[in-house]
Amino acid sequence: MSVDVTSLEAQPGAPQEQVTKKGSGRASTLVRVTKYTAVKTITLFISVVIAVYLTILIANMGGYVDQIVRGQIREFIGQQLRANQEYQLMDPAEKNAFFLSQVERAEKRYGLDRPFAVRSLAFLWNAIRMDFGTAQLMSSDTGSRQVSLIILDRLGPTLLLLGASNLILFFVSIGLALALSRSYGNIWDKLIIAFSPTSSAPSWFYGLFLILLFAAVLKWLPFGGMIDSPPPRDQLGYALNVAKHLILPTAAIITSSIFISIYNWRTFFLIYSSEDYVEMAKAKGLGDRDIQNRYILRPTLPTIITSFALLVISLWTGLILTEGVFQWPGLGRTYITAIGLYDTPVIVAITIIYAYLLALTVFLLDFVYALVDPRVKIGD
Description:
The chain is an all-alpha fold.
């Protein structure tokens, strides 16, 4: 009986070769993911920069707002000087010279002594660095005119409203869509189909009716705001009071999107429930809950997440008017106020915050795909 020495010598090297291949595979995956992340980040960053610069041009109306601000400065200084007795005692030439000097100082303080093209690039650079400077007319709750503090004061209420409404909308829509997919064609299924066109109306539209019904007629809920005046002193009472004010705006946002979400996701569930592997699972005797979670819900999650992410983006943009209707002290209401006052730094700051949040949503979407669906590989 002969022994193959070459085969014995080759065997110890086989595991080492497998480890080497596994290590090289992990390295290639890391390189692929890193490359994809870098390209995605650069692409989104360029999109944000373009969007912000266009917002700067629009917010200044191509420089026309400068003329409006100059007029406001002259009017404000004129009112102050008319109440100054020393100014009234000056001769007309001195009055005019002093008035022009005060106007020039004020315009320099607002940066109006530089051309708009130069200031627009400065606005863009500061916006990218999240250095928003000082507001022209607005102030934070503490009286500060730092735009970053104004944003921080208003960001919390906006995230609270959007987070609460989106969480309720997501889980309620999925639960009802799954229930309807199991009872296709019944009366509730037909009602959802009938009500799905109502989602074409924005949330602020439903907000007006909800305020009329529950605040003006029934007097069950407040008309708007985030807290009663004076606010409750204890923490529990404060939280319950905020929750009470949160009901109507949250209901408006959910009402504007829930029917179309249920209808869309119920359709996805119906399509996947007729697949061969679902019938095979039923033939094996698996329970309805296992079939629903493992063979229907999980394959549809990437599609549902895409649909929900696009819905969140639309809700971000639609939240501006909704907060205005409910007098909710968030970024949307602040945005409306800044537009009315032509406060360009605040307008640009809120726009850049929205742009970064939307870009972050799109950026995370691909990674969420890979988490919920093993078939998806980042960078392929």
